[in-house]
Amino acid sequence: MFRHALITGASGSIGSALARRLRGRVEAMTLVDLNASTLAPLVHELDARALAWDLADVDGLDARWADATRDREVDLLINCAGILDFRSVTAMPWDAAKKVLDVDLVAPLWLQRRAAGSMRHGAAIVNVASLAGVVPLRGATYYGAAKAGFAMASEIAHVELAPHGVHVVTVYPG
User: Fold this and answer.
1) Any idea which residues carry the catalytic annotation?
2) Which of 29, 66, 96, 140 is the residue whose CA sits 20 to 30 A from 23?
3) pTM of the predicted model as reported, rounded to 2 decimal places
4) For residue 91, what are the contacts with CB-CB under 8 A and spacing of at least 6?
């Protein structure tokens, strides 16, 4: 049994399904999404804690992580948050592209690094990548690039953390 699961993107279809699947398998669950009010029904159903995080605000992750782990360290991290913004490489403004890269690549890598630093034998990280990072899709320049980079970093973390008994799994929905 895990002591503390933290799930980003918990109000989405994949994140909420994973949270429900963990019921009874974790002592405490922290559900993270951009808007905590969208998590209210799930929080009530699962007796979980909700936190509102803007993962595009990468500079604020230290404080958010400290808040999430003040009572106990995370031993199950599920990186499920993501932004789907399909526009052509020339049509997407750079600020929108940077937000996709921050939410889909930079923030989950930061969370993986931070969680792995305190994880013990038997802990796990589940990283939700995408087939859009493997198969070229029109309009998915930044999303596909972010998911491809995230998937590779996840696969490398799997190799690096396995000797320490920390499991890293990369999931490719799509």
Assistant:
1) 143
2) 66
3) 0.96
4) none
